[in-house]
Every structure is written in C-alpha cells, then in structure tokens.
Design a protein that fits this description.
alpha/beta; Rossmann fold; 6-stranded mixed beta sheet; 4-stranded antiparallel beta sheet; binds adenosine-5'-triphosphate; binds magnesium ion
Amino acid sequence: MTLQVTQLCKTYAATQVGGEPVRVLHNIDLQVNAGEFVAITGESGVGKSTLLNCLAGLDDWQSGDIVLNGDPLSTLSADARAHWRRDHVGFVFQAFHVLPHLTVAQNIALPKMLQGYAASACEDAVNELLVAAGLTGMGNRLPEQLSGGQLQRVAIARALVHRPQLILADEPTGNLDPETGDRILHLLRDQAKRTQAALITVTHSQPAAQMADRTLTLSATGLSPQRL
Ligand SMILES: Nc1ncnc2c1ncn2[C@@H]1O[C@H](COP(=O)(O)OP(=O)(O)OP(=O)(O)O)[C@@H](O)[C@H]1O
Ligand SMILES: [Mg+2]
C-alpha cells in the first residue's frame, strides 16, 4: 500500500467551556511507499499518537487529506472507514488495548475473526506469531497473567495476524529490553517487506529509528527529516 498525506491539519476542540482549542497537526506532508518502514519521533504531546489515529481513520481532521492506494480517506463514510480499517490496518496502540477476558491466542486471532474466519482457520497464523513474538506456550493465558512487555508483544502479534497493508505502531518497543525490542522490530519490518505493507512506527528508541528506512521528526511546524 502507498500512503500519501497532504497538508493535514488537526485541532482538538476545547475540552471545557471557555477553554482553548488545541492545535496539534499543522500542514503535515508524508509519503510512504509499499514495503517502506518510516519511524516518527518527536516530543511528548506533539501529536504523534494523534497522527497515527488519523492515518487509521480513527480520528477526524479539519483540512488536508490522507490518500491510500489513490483513495482519499476523507470520502469514506464512517462505516466504510471501519470496514477499510478492519481489512487493511494493523494498529499497535500505545496502551495495548488487549481484551482482558480473551486468552492471548484469542486476542491475537481477533482481527481475522472480525473478518469472518473461524477460530480453527486462525490457528496456524496465531501459532506462527506466538513463536515469532517470543510468546511460545502462552496462547492459553489471560492477559492478567502476562508481564507488560509480553502484553506489548500480544498487541504486536494481533496487529500483524491479518497481514494488513498499513501497519501503524505507537512505541511498539517501549516496554521491551533491547534484545526483545530488536526482535520485535525485525518482525514488524520483515512482515512489511514481505507483504509490501507501509509500516509507520512512533518511537523514541535510537535502534528502532536506525532500523527504519527513514526517520522523521514531528514538531509544531510539521514533519521533517530527523536532524542528526
Ligand atoms: N481527545 C483529545 N482532546 C483534546 N486534546 C487532546 C486529545 N487527545 C490528545 N490531546 C492533546 O493533543 C496533543 C497531542 O497528543 P498526542 O497523544 O497525539 O501526543 P504524542 O505526541 O503521542 O505524545 P506522547 O509522546 O506523550 O505519547 C497533546 O497536547 C494532548 O494533550
Ligand atoms: Mg503518544
């Protein structure tokens, strides 16, 4: 998938009466090609998670557009966006959002189940990802029985299971030791190359930024190549 963002602007409405609106994204331009891995850095609160949410069609914006394989996201209805997201986006949330009452294996299988696959048809893909994410033997556990770093890897496996064309990961190695983080970044990058997905990760980790094809820094004035 190719992703093209042009002049994207987003302001959050004031959160209280008499409060100020929060201008977050200003004239963001970004192009990511199929199979490309782009890392985004930037200060806390600058709008990185907001940008990923817009790219996934989870949030609205005021002007500019996001075009995926030639189709502008702004022209899709809310329903069409939800379908598009289900079929084409893998999202690793900063706060994981793992469902507490499902086992690890069920959490990972969820995107495929939502596409209508039976649990039995998801088994091979789930088992492959359990191994690749270093979660062998943990498929039947509940999330409360995992460590923070293990939960993060469940969220990553879940984002990859349906082979999405757009992979968005918000600090995917934030809770991992360097070695495990490295393994997870390889997993994300290898799948993106293999499936020709566009991969965008938000990261503060230097190794992650180094593994990317390009690293960009988000600031109040826009997105620019990382200054070394
Ligand atoms: N729903 C919301 N309503 C109003 N303001 C919001 C909302 N969500 C986020 N913000 C504000 O928008 C700005 C950008 O938030 P965002 O979560 O995108 O930052 P971030 O770059 O991901 O930060 P971090 O590195 O800490 O995760 C922040 O100032 C935040 O307080
Ligand atoms: Mg964030």
